[in-house]
Automatic annotation (TrEMBL):
Name recorded for this polypeptide: Alpha-glucosidase
SMART domains to which the protein is assigned, alphabetical: Aamy
Keywords: Glycoprotein
Signal peptide start-end: none
Family (UniProt): Belongs to the glycosyl hydrolase 13 family.
One GO term (biological process): oligosaccharide catabolic process
Organism the protein comes from: Micromonospora rhizosphaerae
Native organism taxonomy: Bacteria, Bacillati, Actinomycetota, Actinomycetes, Micromonosporales
Short name of any one Pfam family annotated for the protein: Alpha-amylase
Residue intervals of the Glycosyl hydrolase family 13 catalytic domain: 24-409
UniProt GO molecular function: alpha-amylase activity
Length: 545
C-alpha cells in the first residue's frame, strides 16, 4: 500500500483550488450508514479516512437538500436544509468538521436556475393569479394560438419535449429540464437576494466552494424568441447546440452580472472560498468569460467527456483547454467522468480494453496542470451498468428520451461477497439501484493493497502528483514531445527535474527511451535496450533529475 499523503490539515492556501484533485461524491450512491439503501451524509463522514488515504484534496457533494428527488436532488424545495433521506444539518456540520480536520475541503452543489415545483415559491405561484407578484419569480407566460393552447415559444427541455407546461388557469411556465423544475426569473430582485443569502448560509457553515448547476442558464433572452427548430418540427434537438452554438436560453451576457455580485460574497470569507461553473458556451472564449477575478474561479472543461481514444483527439482537447486557461489566467479543470455521462471505462470500449484505457487516461489527466475532478468509483475502474432493468431507472430524461444516466449512478462497492458490497450496513441487501455481481472483485477492500489494482494506481498517482516538484501546484507548463505516431507524450519540469507522461494510443507496443526512469505505469513495463516497452493502451510517468 502507498504511504498516506503528507499534508497538514487544511493548509491555509487561498489558491488551493488551482491544482486540487476534487472527488465528486454522488451522495445517494456513495455510502449508506442508516441501512435504507440510499447513501447519506453520515455514510460520507464514515468514509472520509478512505478519501484522505486516496489522496484527494476536496469533495464535491451533489445536492443533498430537501427535495422530492425527481431529478436526483437537482430539484430543490428548501435550499437551507438537508433532505431527511440524507440526514440532518447536524450531520452536515459533523461531516464538514471531520473533513476539515482531515485536510479535506467541501464543495456543495448550488442549483440556482430552477427550483423544485414543491418549493414554497412555486406553490404560491400556482395558487396565485396570472400577473401576480408570486408568478413574477418564475417565467410564466401566455400561450400562442387562439385560446393560448400552444406554448409561448419553441423552446425544448434538455430532457426532451417542450420546455413549457400549462397550468389550470391556462398560463404556461418554463422548465428547461423536468416540469418539476420550474425556471426562476433571475431578473427579479427577490430571486437574486435569496440566492445571495443561500450562499452566505452555506459559507457560514464552512463550505469551501460551490459547484454552480446550469451556470449558463439563469438569464433568458428578452422577449423569449424562438430558436427556429426543435425535435418536434425538424427532428433536430436543440440540445445538440450545447457547447457548440447559441441558444436564447443559455449563455446570455447578462448572466455575468450575477457572478459579479457573487464574487465579493465569496471573497469576504477567509480561506479561499471558490465556485466552479457547470457552463456550456459556444466557444472557449465565451466559456472563459465565466472565470476571472471578478466572476467564478473555474468552469468545467467538459471536452474530455467527448474525446475519443486517439492521440489527435486528446491533444486537441488538452490544447484547447490550456489555451482557454491562458485567456483568463485561471487554471484548467479536467473531467473524465461525472454523474451525467457514461463512465469512461465503457466509453473507451468497456471490458478489459475499456479498463486498460481508462487507467491510462487517468495518468494522462493527473499529469496535467490545473484541477482534476474525479467521479466516485473511477478509482475502482467501475464501468457503466448497461443492463439495469427499465423499471428501476429513475432518471427523468429516460421516459422522455429513452436515454438514462442511471448506469453511472449505481452505489459503489466497498467490501464483502454480497451486493450491495458494503455500501449499506451488514444485512441490508437492497440498494436503490442494484450493483452487478462483477463488482465484488472491484470493491475497495478487494483492491486495497493489491499491486497493480486500479485503486492502488490512483493512490500512487495522486501521491506523486502532490509530491513531485514538476507536478505539484500549478508548476511546470506542458511541453509536447515527438514520440512517434500514436504516442502522446509531454513533459513538465521544475528546475532540472523533468517528468514525462507518455500514453500509447497507437494500437501496438512502443519503445519509450530517453525520458528517464518510470515512476508509475498503468500496465507493466518491460525493459528493452536502454528504454522500456509501453504496452498497448497504457500510460506511464518517467522521471529525470
Ligand atoms: C446538470 C446536472 O449535472 C444534472 O444532473 C441535472 O439533471 C441538470 N443540471 C439539471 O439541474
Amino acid at each position: 500500500m502507498t504511504a498516506a499523503i503528507n499534508r497538514t490539515p487544511l493548509a491555509s492556501d487561498d489558491d488551493w483550488w488551482r491544482s486540487a484533485v476534487v472527488y465528486q461524491v454522488y451522495v445517494r450512491s456513495f455510502a449508506d450508514a442508516n441501512g435504507d439503501g440510499v447513501g447519506d451524509l453520515q455514510g460520507i463522514r464514515e468514509r472520509l479516512p478512505y478519501l484522505r488515504e486516496l489522496g484527494v484534496d476536496a469533495l464535491w457533494l451533489t445536492p443533498f437538500f430537501t427535495s422530492p428527488q425527481i431529478d436526483g436532488g437537482y430539484d430543490v424545495a428548501d435550499y437551507r436544509d438537508v433532505d431527511p433521506m440524507f440526514g440532518t444539518l447536524a450531520d452536515f456540520d459533523a461531516m464538514i468538521t471531520d473533513a476539515h480536520a482531515l485536510g479535506l475541503r467541501i464543495i456543495v452543489d448550488l442549483v440556482p436556475n430552477h427550483t423544485s415545483s414543491a418549493h414554497p415559491w412555486f406553490r404560491a405561484a400556482l395558487a396565485a393569479r396570472p400577473g401576480s407578484a408570486e408568478r413574477e419569480r418564475y417565467l410564466f407566460a401566455d400561450g400562442k394560438g387562439e385560446q393560448g393552447e400552444l406554448p409561448p415559444n419553441d423552446w425544448e427541455s434538455i430532457f426532451g419535449g417542450p420546455a413549457w407546461t400549462r397550468v389550470a388557469d391556462g398560463q404556461w411556465y418554463l422548465h428547461l429540464f423536468d416540469p418539476a423544475q420550474p425556471d426562476l426569473n433571475w431578473r427579479h430582485p427577490e430571486v437574486r437576494a435569496e440566492f445571495e443569502d443561500v450562499l452566505r448560509f452555506w459559507l457560514d457553515r464552512g463550505v469551501d466552494g460551490f459547484r454552480i448547476d446550469v451556470a449558463h442558464g439563469m438569464i433568458k433572452a428578452e422577449g423569449l424568441p424562438d430558436v427556429g427548430f426543435n425535435s418536434m418540427t425538424t427532428g433536430r434537438r436543440q440540445s445538440e447546440l450545447l457547447g457548440k452554438g447559441r441558444l436564447p436560453y443559455f449563455d446570455q451576457d447578462e448572466v455575468h452580472d450575477i457572478y459579479r455580485a457573487w464574487r465579493p460574497i465569496l471573497d469576504s470569507y477567509p480561506g479561499g472560498r471558490m465556485a466552479v461553473a457547470e457552463a456550456w458556451a459556444e466557444t472557449p472564449q465565451r466559456l472563459a468569460r465565466y472565470i476571472g477575478p471578478d466572476e467564478l474561479h473555474q468552469a468545467f472543461s467538459f471536452d474530455f467527456l467527448d474525446a475519443t481514444w486517439s492521440a489527435d483527439s486528446f491533444r486537441k482537447v488538452i490544447d484547447t483547454a490550456l489555451a482557454e486557461s491562458t485567456i483568463v489566467g485561471a487554471p484548467t479543470t479536467w473531467v473524465l467522468s461525472n454523474h451525467d455521462r457514461q463512465r469512461h471505462v465503457t466509453r473507451y470500449g468497456d471490458g478489459e480494453v475499456g479498463l486498460r484505457r481508462a487507467r491510462a487516461a487517468a495518468l494522462l489527466m493527473l499529469a496535467l496542470p490545473g484541477c482534476a475532478y474525479l467521479y466516485q468509483g473511477e478509482e475502482l475502474g467501475l464501468p457503466e451498468v448497461l443492463d439495469l432493468p427499465d423499471e428501476l431507472r429513475q432518471d427523468p430524461a429516460f421516459l422522455r428520451t429513452g436515454e438514462s444516466r442511471d448506469g453511472c449512478r449505481v452505489p459503489i462497492p466497498w467490501s464483502g461477497e454480497l451486493a450491495p458490497y458494503g455500501f449499506s450496513p451488514e444485512g441490508c441487501e437492497l440498494s436503490w439501484l442494484p450493483a452487478p455481481a462483477t463488482w465484488r472483485a472491484l470493491s475497495v477492500a478487494a483492491q486495497t493493497g493489491v499491486p497493480g489494482s486500479t485503486l492502488e494506481l490512483y493512490r500512487a498517482a495522486l501521491r506523486i502528483r502532490h509530491e513531485h516538484p514538476a507536478l505539484a501546484g500549478t508548476a511546470g507548463a506542458v511541453t509536447w514531445l515527438e514520440a512517434g505516431p500514436g504516442v502522446l507524450a509531454f513533459r513538465r519540469s521544475a528546475g532540472d527535474t523533468v517528468l514525462t507522461c507518455a500514453v500509447n494510443v497507437s494500437g501496438a507496443e512502443v519503445v519509450i527511451d530517453g525520458y528517464g526512469r518510470p515512476i508509475v505505469a498503468s500496465a507493466e513495463l518491460t525493459e528493452q535496450g536502454g528504454g522500456h516497452l509501453l504496452p498497448v493502451d497504457a500510460a506511464a510517468w518517467f522521471e529525470r533529475r
